[in-house]
Write a structure and sequence with these properties.
TATA-Binding Protein, Endonuclease III, domain 1, two-stranded antiparallel sheet, about 40% helix, AlkA_N_sf, DNA repair, DNA-7-methylguanine glycosylase activity
């Protein structure tokens, strides 16, 4: 079954810029992006999945997106739920104009925003995928993390073959439980990281409601997450930004942010935590969104 929906994001929305992070040097194995159409298997709230395709139908100032959903069966409830998920994950209702106005007090960041007008973050579909992806990426470069992720998908994920392309279903907790962490070494994932991911999956299978953390304030989310093995402040902050869209989260220890600030502000070295907090004070209440612009925006 195939359904098509037209979505209207708030303006501005630069489709090409928002997906520029999917470059050949940083291939995300869960996503197919040919420069025009974003495609991946998307988990729906009812436990099933659909293949989504998203393409631009408008302009930066008058944006429209075409969303196509494909699955063996799609109910009216599925369509409504999936559309809401897509709007949230692709930040279609985020008020970028308010963000740009708020950071005018910081000429450096404001200039980056003007150069990257319409750049919108892309969130992960759920917290399990966000956190496990963050664990894979701990203390390694992004390219290597993508290679590990691809190995995990090839080894453990279900496949969906469409139009000559193989799409992977990101493994669900039930599919990760009970796996042997030594198997993960086949695709260069450390045993310890495998233990963290398997442990999180088993905790969820035992009844822990990970998604319910999204109902809590930022500080409480972080506090609950760092109680879990393998999740420190950086992973918790990443989950707040890329999993929940908490746009005032500041990942003070993030190497990408520190390097971005060093480059953008012409510093001779990476800023200290105190220096970063002082600079970022002008970004409130959008410190996490500012971080995203320093991560992915064109320099």
């Amino acid at each position: 079954m195939r359904k098509e929906i037209l979505l209207s994001p708030t303006s501005p929305y630069d489709f090409d810029l928002s997906f520029a992070y999917l470059s050949p040097n940083r291939p995300d194995p869960i996503v197919h992006f040919d420069g025009k159409v974003f495609r991946r298997v998307w988990p729906m709230n009812n436990g099933s999945s659909c293949l989504i395709s998203i393409e631009s139908k408008g302009t930066v100032e008058r944006p429209q997106l075409g969303l196509t959903m494909e699955a063996p069966e799609l109910t009216a409830e599925d369509l409504t739920s999936c559309e809401a998920q897509i709007r949230k994950a692709f930040c279609l209702d985020l008020d970028l104009l308010d963000f740009y106005e708020m950071v005018k007090s910081d000429p450096t960041l404001h200039a980056i925003c003007l150069k990257n007008r319409g750049l919108r973050p892309v969130l992960e579909p759920d917290l399990f995928e966000t956190i496990t992806w963050a664990i894979i990426g701990q203390q390694v470069n992004l390219r290597f993390a993508c290679q590990v992720k691809e190995g995990m998908l090839k080894r453990f994920a279900r496949r969906w073959n469409v139009d000559g392309h193989t799409f992977y279903h990101y493994p669900m907790p039930a599919e990760i439980c009970g796996l042997d962490p030594d198997e993960w070494r086949e695709f260069k994932c450390s045993r310890r990281k495998a233990e963290y991911i398997i442990g999180l999956a088993e905790k969820i299978q035992d009844g822990f409601d990970l998604e319910a953390l999204g109902k809590l304030p930022d500080a409480e989310v972080a506090r609950e997450l760092v109680k879990m093995r393998g999740i420190g402040p950086w992973t918790a902050e990443y989950a707040l930004i890329r999993g929940l869209g908490r746009w005032d989260t500041l990942p003070v220890g993030d190497a990408g942010l520190l390097n971005g600030v060093k480059r953008a502000y012409g510093l001779s070295r990476k800023p200290t935590e105190d220096e970063l907090l002082k600079i970022a004070e002008n970004w409130r209440p959008y410190r996490g969104l500012a971080t995203y612009y320093l991560w992915w925006g064109e320099k």
